[in-house]
Specification:
Order of helices and strands: EEEHEEEHHHHHHHHHHHHHHHHH
Number of strands: 6
Bound molecules: s-citryldethia Coenzyme A
Distance between the termini: 69 Å
Largest sheet: 3 strands, antiparallel
Helix content: 40-55%
Number of helices: 18
Strand content: 5-15%
Shape: globular
């Protein structure tokens, strides 16, 4: 188990308000920005802090993922994402995120066996799909099916029982590929393919997604490797919106399946995990390189409400390291598929080049993020656009469940309950309708 390091006081910040002042501890962790501990601010100065989008607020202590937005650094339990993407596998990264250390051979074998043994869904869950329209968005199906899982696995929802927490983690990680693949099969009107125990995690997902009963399916090793790498790149990312949603839901002692369903719902937004689908739609709307200048002008016009999807990030004010690896994987996948010129990739590269030389984007430190290239690879691998975000959710499930586990096991964990600045009407008395004029 990784050392359960906690933050230490590295200094004091003195805040003065009116005729009072408070000495607040400043806490520092292993890496990153120090934080002023404001937990006693209200009792000492009678005031709250105000940070509506939490841009300058640390919501928790965590030992899982570290991001340095200025340097473009991403570490999972201290290991650089570039090394893990190159040398590790998604299930090894899943073990690392959950347990804090890379597994030895025996631990890895036991872990993969547990995951493999949980890939099947309760047969009754299949009937959920009969209730959806055939054209239902797969994210709607993921939200619904995952949210209902506690009804099918009631023996692993006691969050205070470590064994049940472990089983629900295995069930979530193991079943999310089956649910994701079946959502696609339902959209496609094809029969569901059951998981196979002889395939690796990424092979199994590609099999359940692409295989059809009449045809033998042989996973392509290059595409399998690319899929595994894409899952690694999306596995976790500190306290992003969907992870914070999972933590907030989990802080009420809600069951883990309900918390993951909340995370899926939050990830769906185009400002977050829905951006990969939005990038492809944006590239299709731009259509060709000659239309880029007009599109860029539209983005700069605040009234247009048009954003350069796949660009910008709350934390990265430098290149998202995942985008670089994604771009490299793009070439590998297109090469393996014998796709000499992919117009979408050419368009994306030209769009990136123009944007990175435009003052509007440079001055706002807007760079490609993980979503800018992922859609191009997934499209080349035969995934429909509306499956891009579900694949992001599939990968992020291990990050969500790792962060949820860390929070539940943190003795200082309390229900998350932000406050507000009230700007509504002052207290007033009720007036009956016949007196209201
Ligand atoms: C993910 O948090 C995570 O870690 C998320 C994620 C993860 O792994 O979990 O990394 C995954 O969600 C990546 C982000 C995917 N979203 C997109 O690609 C959608 C497009 N990006 C934007 O919506 C935006 O950049 C956000 C939402 C990602 C970040 O928003 P912020 O931090 O609130 O940035 P901002 O809105 O304060 O932007 C600052 C300025 C503004 O201009 P001004 O008001 O200063 O004039 O930059 C502009 C914004 O209008 N801006 C953009 C832009 N992103 C920001 N202008 C055009 N196109 C964009 N994409």
């Amino acid at each position: 188990m990784a050392p359960s390091a906690t933050s230490k006081q590295v200094g004091t910040a003195t805040l003065t308000f009116g005729d009072k002042s408070a000495d607040l501890p400043v806490l520092g962790g292993t890496l990153g920005t120090d934080c002023v501990d404001v937990r006693k601010l209200q009792s000492q100065l009678g005031i709250f802090t105000f940070d509506p989008s939490y841009g300058a607020t640390a919501s928790c202590e965590s030992a899982i993922t570290y991001i340095d937005g200025d340097e473009g650094i991403l570490l999972y339990r201290g290991y650089p994402i570039e090394q893990l993407a190159e040398k590790s596998t998604f299930l090894e990264v899943a073990y690392l995120l959950l347990n804090g250390e890379l597994p030895n051979q025996a631990q890895y074998k036991e872990f993969t066996t547990h995951v493999t043994m949980h890939t099947m869904l309760h047969e009754q869950i299949r009937r959920f799909w009969d209730g959806f329209r055939r054209d239902a968005h797969p994210m709607a199906m993921l939200c619904s099916v995952v949210g209902a899982m506690s009804a099918f696995y009631p023996d692993s929802i006691d969050i205070h029982d470590p064994r049940q927490r472990e089983i629900s983690a295995f069930r979530m990680i193991a079943k999310i590929p089956t649910i994701t693949a079946w959502a696609h099969k339902y959209n496609a009107g094809q029969p569901f393919m059951y998981p196979r125990n002889d395939l690796s995690y990424a092979e199994n997902f590609l099999y359940m997604f692409h295989a059809v009963p009449p045809q033998e399916y042989k996973p392509n090793p290059i595409l399998t490797r690319a899929m595994d790498r894409i899952l690694i790149l999306h596995a976790d990312h500190e306290q992003n919106a969907s992870t914070s949603t999972v933590r907030l839901a989990g802080s009420t002692d809600a069951n883990p399946f309900a918390c993951i369903a909340a995370g899926i719902a939050s990830l769906w937004g185009p400002a977050h995990g829905g951006a990969n689908e939005a990038v492809l739609k944006m590239l299709e709307e731009i259509g060709s390189v000659k239309n880029i200048p007009a599109f860029i002008e539209q983005v700069k016009d605040k009234n247009s409400n048009v954003k350069l999807m796949g660009f910008g990030h709350r934390v990265y004010k430098n290149y998202d390291p995942r985008a670089k690896i994604m771009q490299k994987t793009c070439y590998e996948v297109l090469g393996e598929l014998g796709i000499k010129d992919e117009p979408m990739l050419d368009l994306a590269m030209e769009l990136e080049k123009i944007a990175l030389n435009d003052e509007y984007f440079v001055s706002r430190k807007l760079y490609p993020n993980v979503d800018f290239y992922s859609g191009i690879i997934l499209k080349a691998m035969g995934f429909p656009t509306k499956m891009f975000t579900p694949i992001f959710a599939l990968a992020r499930t291990v990050g969500w469940i790792s962060q949820w586990k860390e929070m539940i096991e943190d003795p200082s964990n309390r229900i998350n309950r932000p406050r507000q600045i009230y700007t509504g009407a002052p207290q007033r008395d009720y007036v009956s309708v016949d007196q209201r004029g």
